[in-house]
Amino acid sequence: MGEKRVALAVGAHPDDVEFKMAGTLSLLGKAGFETHILTVANGSCGTAEYSEQDIIRIRRQEADDAARIMDATYHPGLVNDLEVYYDSALVRKATAVVREIRPNIVLAPSLNDYM
């Protein structure tokens, strides 16, 4: 039996992976990879229509549903929107997820890509 193959798709916000990487992640799943989705921010500034807690809950549910459709495991946002900084606290949180799932492949957005 071979080594477990794991793919991790990382997006800044809920729905980023779904818009940019879902096809590739689904193909990896069909090729036998265990697939995971991680969002860095939780979507707390996603709308002015709902309270912060409501939009976080709504966007998490949407991300959970999308991950289920792709047969992936969803790892929820690590910090609130507007709290995404390159600092030791966020690096530790992201590193903990990576160490937990030990991906062979990581899909990430381009440094210069903003939709």
From TrEMBL:
List the PANTHER family hit by this protein, alphabetically.
N-ACETYL-ALPHA-D-GLUCOSAMINYL L-MALATE DEACETYLASE 1, N-ACETYLGLUCOSAMINYL-PHOSPHATIDYLINOSITOL DE-N-ACETYLASE-RELATED
Q: What is this protein called?
A: LmbE family protein
The protein's matches in Pfam families, at most eight in alphabetical order, are given as: PIG-L
Species the sequence originates in:
marine sediment metagenome
Q: Which GO terms describe its molecular function?
A: hydrolase activity, acting on carbon-nitrogen (but not peptide) bonds, in linear amides
Instruction: Kindly give the InterPro entries that the UniProt entry links to this protein.
Output: GlcNAc_PI_deacetylase-related (IPR003737), LmbE-like_dom_sf (IPR024078)
